[in-house]
């Protein structure tokens, strides 16, 4: 833990929406009278039919439901577009910055509205109705935001699959949600190289399990020649040109689904996290405004991809609901060189910049000269998300990017939470490098011991959230039982986050990482079980165990222990083949950093793999293995230590 404390800057506090006194008063009201608080703040968005009920939640595992504003109706896209037309129709809604630094585009609210209406009509003409699922597999280009909002406009449920996922991973998600339409592009572009999205989509859709997809909409992006299926494929540009620009927003119930986003858990295949419309939008827009101290006219840039929840809530829905100018960046921080982020900040005069610790660590390694080259005087607020930020990276970010003037909001949240739950507010919270600090309005975190007893004061424990908030996920798509099992069964009566945390004497929270078998690689969440099942799907592999290992840039790397079938030879070629296999099965982000041959795995007598031991060996902490006497064959441990890869 870092000892430094940075008090709220007077300069920032002066112009901030929330200062210390206001935070205290609003937080108090939010937890003492949640109905009153959320009843009042729900009005920040436009309702077609106003709600009369605010909250209706039961965490009883036998009858679990979560409803907010349940009798209200609205349209999410109209909140992000139509309601701004009169006052800011000519203001830029989206600044698109291409992978190629010479490419950028400003899209006004009026223009975005028209694009969304046209594509919404095009989707309707393909037979997409309210409640139908549409999978979006696109690069970070404006058509991604247009597709999301077009779905929202007609009440279709979108499910974005990150463009870095493999055909296999895409197929699994398309099949699970039963999509009617898939949207992709000829290619993506990252760091000057093409990514074969259409080819991947073709391969995914040829999967025998996929029976629901009627159309594949293709955005022409790089112009690359691609195979074409006349019966199924249509060009995005053609269908938009043919469609009417007049598309009245469909009236949607607050509790109708807005999107499904797949995320990794500790067991089984990824689960479809389902978010609904009203509460999600209230929460995403409110957190966007207060956490980033967003003021009208600010240029706001979140560097995430829309394939992750951060892109949903803090590139598209939150900022657009607030009438912001949001920047969408297609490229990578290192292309054409390590000054790209800072060049983009200078070029577009970015005021609020939100990125991930892994990017900061990678850029820090390249040296501060790359930062110093750019004029960063427009920056006012910095943000961090996705994993714990180590104090060294925090200090570097604060000094070199923020010039010691910009507060850093270290925002802790999850795909499941819909929006930020723990974070400083720029004008209200003293900063401690490495701590996500204090809860947002309406959020009551608690730390529990293994028996579920709530711990008081400064302590470590399992982080849970006691009561519901409007942005909370409502279910796992198609598997409500799994929702209950995953989040409400270990500790009944509260939402279990799966993270561990420490609370200090000032009540600040320090997230210590996952307490389950989920790892966090460059801010990307990965189930070790998913990588294991990819490995054992290889015909030469008998068994595999995967653990996270500390990694300087990625935060955590992937360490795989592999047992081959009895007649297979462990060779360097096979090692490379298995790494490639995992990339193909899941995607490049799941590539094992280390792959060790392990003739045996440490197991208890009942056959359970002892991952604690595997984690220690991977991390080179094999002198602290603890008790190994319960192992069926303690001898395997010596072999694993002798042959470890991370030396
Ligand atoms: O372990 C926490 C970590 O990322 C997990 C959630 O991952 P995902 O659903 O992919 O969402 C990422 C973007 C919100 C959490 O359970 N995490 C996220 N933000 C932080 C964090 N850990 C520490 N500090 C953070 N600021």
UniProtKB/TrEMBL annotation:
It catalyses: acetate + ATP + CoA = acetyl-CoA + AMP + diphosphate. Residues 82-466 form the AMP-dependent synthetase/ligase domain. InterPro entries: Ac_CoA_lig, ACAS_N, AMP-bd_C, AMP-bd_C_sf, AMP-binding_CS, AMP-dep_synth/lig_dom, ANL_N_sf. Residues 530-608 form the AMP-binding enzyme C-terminal domain. GO terms for biological process: acetyl-CoA biosynthetic process from acetate. Its EC number is 6.2.1.1. Acetylated. Deacetylation by the SIR2-homolog deacetylase activates the enzyme. Its cofactor is Mg(2+). GO terms for cellular component: cytosol. CoA binds at residues 190-193, 310, 522, 583. ATP binds at residues 386-388, 410-415, 499, 514, 525. NCBIfam families: Ac_CoA_lig_AcsA, PRK00174.1. Catalyzes the conversion of acetate into acetyl-CoA (AcCoA), an essential intermediate at the junction of anabolic and catabolic pathways. AcsA undergoes a two-step reaction. In the first half reaction, AcsA combines acetate with ATP to form acetyl-adenylate (AcAMP) intermediate. In the second half reaction, it can then transfer the acetyl group from AcAMP to the sulfhydryl group of CoA, forming the product AcCoA. This is Acetyl-coenzyme A synthetase. It comes from Thalassospira mesophila. The lineage of its organism: Bacteria, Pseudomonadati, Pseudomonadota, Alphaproteobacteria, Rhodospirillales.
